[in-house]
Amino acid sequence: MVKAKIVQKDNKINSFVINGHANSGDYGHDLVCAGITAIVSGSLNALDIKFQNNIEINVSENEIKINVIKENELLNNLLEFMIIQLETIEVQYPKNFKIERMF
């Protein structure tokens, strides 16, 4: 299962962590994993280009962490946009993907 954890305070996202494997298909044919990867990778590219001074991104083999170090309304909106897209996958594949929000 892929798990995402979002930490928020005062309606602002402070951190986002995603890890795990969807295990919904054979390697290279896992549509849940492919969808999650496309959303997160595209978002990371935009975040890295537009907000490199506002965030810390750590990518390892099985985990991605985003920490907000300097708040920005547009940055928060982009993170929410990414999460909304991920929530559509969570609704369709609840056995393979879980998002947890911590306030």
UniProtKB/TrEMBL annotation:
Belongs to the Prp family. This is Ribosomal processing cysteine protease Prp. One of its GO terms (biological process) is ribosome biogenesis. It holds the Pfam family Peptidase_Prp. InterPro entries: Peptidase_Prp (IPR007422), Peptidase_Prp_sf (IPR036764). Transmembrane segments: none annotated. Keywords: Hydrolase, Protease, Ribosome biogenesis, Thiol protease. It comes from the Bacteria. GO terms for molecular function: cysteine-type peptidase activity.
